[in-house]
Design a protein that fits this description.
Elements (H helix, E strand, L loop, with lengths): L7 H93 L1 H34 L3 H116 L3 H20 L16 E3 L6 E3 L4 E2 L2 E2 L34 E3 L4 E2 L8 H14 L8
Antiparallel strand pairs: 1-2, 3-4, 5-6
C-alpha cells in the first residue's frame, strides 16, 4: 500500500525558512560589527590626530631639556675634572703619609691587639677565679638554696600583702569618698559665700550711699558750723581783749604817775599785739578822757567809738565810721549766735548753759533737708539732739 508524503515538503520548507532567517541575522551582525569597527577606527584616527600636536610639542620640549642638560654638563665638566683631580691628589697625599708612617702604624696596631688579648686573658682568669670560688665547699649549691629561700620568702610576703589589698582598696575608697565630701562641702561653702555676697551687695551699696550722704552732710553742715564756732570764739576773745583795753584806757586817763602809766601802756601794747595776731587792727590812739571816747565827725556828725562794733558777726576795724549803729556798751555788742535758745529757733546742744553760751544758730532747713538729716541720724546712730 502506498502512503503519500503529505508533510515532508512542509517540514523541509519550514526548516529552510528557519535557516534562512538565521543566516540573515548572522549577515546583519557581521555588517553591524564591520560598521562598529569602522567607527572605532575612525575615532582612533581622530584621537591620534588630536594628540599629535601635543605629543610633538612634548617631544621638542624633551629635546630642549636634553640640550639644556647637555649645556649644564658641558659647563660643569671642567669643575668636575678639577674636583676629581683634587680628590686624586689628596688620596695620593694620604698614601704618601701612610707610606711614611707604615712601620709606626704597624707597631701601634700590634700593641693595641696585644692589649686586647691581655684584657681577654684577664677576663678569662676572672671568670675562672669565680668558678673556682663557687665550686669550693659546695658554695654554688648553698647560694642557690639561699636565693630560693629569699624568693620563697618574697612570694610569701607578697601573698600576705595581696590578701590585704582588698582592705587597702576599701580604705582608699573611703578616703576618696571623704575627700570628695570635703571638696563638695567646700564648693557649697563657696557657692553660699558668693550668694551671700550678692545678697549683701544692695545693703553695702546703701551703706556706701549713707557714707556719701554723711560726707555731703559733713561738708554742708558740720564744717560750716565748726567754722562759725571758731569765728564766734575769735569774736568773743576779741571782745574780751577790747573790753580789757577799754578798762586800761580808763585807768590810764586817771593815772599821772609815770611808772604806772608806763606799766599800763605796756599792758595795752601786749593786748594790741594779741589783736594783731588774731588778724584785727586795734585803735592805738590813747584817749584823753574816759575809756570810751566819742567825738563828732565834722562831715557827717556821726559819733566814732574807740570800741569796735559787730558787722555780720565779724569785728569791724576800729576807726571806721559806722553809719548804721551808734556807739554803745561792749556787752551790748554780743552777736546773735550767743542769744538764749528759748526763742523757738533751731539750735544745737549748749556749750555752757550756766554761762548763757550756746552753739551758733544755723539757718532753718527745708522739710526735705530735715527728713534727709533725720534719716542719716537714725541710720548712723551717732547723732544726738538737734540738727547740725
Amino acid at each position: 500500500m502506498y502512503i503519500p508524503d503529505l508533510f515532508g515538503a512542509y517540514v523541509k520548507g519550514r526548516e529552510l525558512a528557519i535557516e534562512k532567517n538565521w543566516q540573515d541575522l548572522k549577515n546583519f551582525e557581521s555588517v553591524e560589527a564591520a560598521r562598529n569597527q569602522n567607527d572605532l577606527t575612525s575615532m582612533d584616527i581622530w584621537e591620534r590626530r588630536q594628540q599629535m600636536p601635543g605629543k610633538m610639542n612634548m617631544f621638542y620640549n624633551n629635546v630642549d631639556v636634553s640640550q639644556m642638560n647637555t649645556d649644564v654638563a658641558r659647563e660643569a665638566h671642567p669643575g668636575l675634572i678639577a674636583k676629581t683631580r683634587m680628590g686624586s691628589g689628596h688620596a695620593q697625599d694620604q698614601f704618601s703619609v701612610w707610606q711614611a708612617n707604615r712601620d709606626y702604624g704597624r707597631a701601634v696596631m700590634n700593641r693595641g691587639y696585644q692589649s686586647g688579648l691581655s684584657m681577654m686573658d684577664a677576663a678569662g682568669q676572672n671568670k675562672a677565679g669565680q668558678a673556682n670560688y663557687w665550686l669550693t665547699d659546695n658554695r654554688a649549691y648553698q647560694h642557690g638554696g639561699n636565693v630560693a629561700q629569699q624568693t620563697y620568702d618574697t612570694q610569701r610576703g607578697n601573698s600576705t600583702t595581696a590578701a590585704h589589698y582588698p582592705t587597702v582598696a576599701e580604705q582608699k575608697n573611703r578616703e576618696g569618698d571623704v575627700a570628695h565630701g570635703l571638696n563638695m562641702a567646700n564648693y557649697d561653702y563657696q557657692t553660699d559665700y558668693i550668694r551671700g555676697r550678692h545678697e549683701q551687695l544692695p545693703d553695702e551699696l546703701n551703706l556706701q550711699g549713707l557714707h556719701t550722704k554723711n560726707g555731703i552732710y559733713t561738708a554742708e553742715g558740720f564744717i560750716p558750723n565748726q567754722t562759725a564756732d571758731k569765728t564766734a570764739q575769735r569774736n568773743q576773745q576779741l571782745l574780751s581783749l577790747i573790753q580789757e583795753q577799754s578798762s586800761l584806757y580808763d585807768k590810764l586817763s586817771t593815772v599821772t604817775d609815770p611808772a604806772t602809766r608806763q606799766a599800763l601802756q605796756s599792758q595795752i601794747a601786749r593786748l594790741q599785739g594779741y589783736m594783731y595776731d588774731m588778724g584785727y587792727t586795734p585803735d592805738t590812739t590813747i584817749p584823753s578822757g574816759a575809756g570810751v571816747s566819742s567825738q563828732a565827725t565834722p562831715t557827717t556828725g556821726q559819733t566814732q567809738s574807740s570800741v569796735p562794733v559787730m558787722t555780720n558777726s565779724v569785728l569791724a576795724p576800729t576807726g571806721t565810721p559806722q553809719t548804721n549803729q551808734p556807739a554803745q556798751d561792749v556787752r551790748s555788742l554780743l552777736p546773735p549766735m550767743f542769744q538764749n535758745p528759748n526763742g523757738g529757733q533751731v539750735y544745737n546742744y549748749p556749750v555752757s548753759p550756766a554761762q548763757g553760751q550756746y552753739r551758733p544758730l544755723v539757718p532753718t532747713p527745708t522739710p526735705q533737708e530735715v527728713q534727709r538729716r533725720q534719716l542719716i541720724d537714725r541710720l548712723s546712730g551717732s547723732r544726738q539732739g538737734g540738727i547740725l
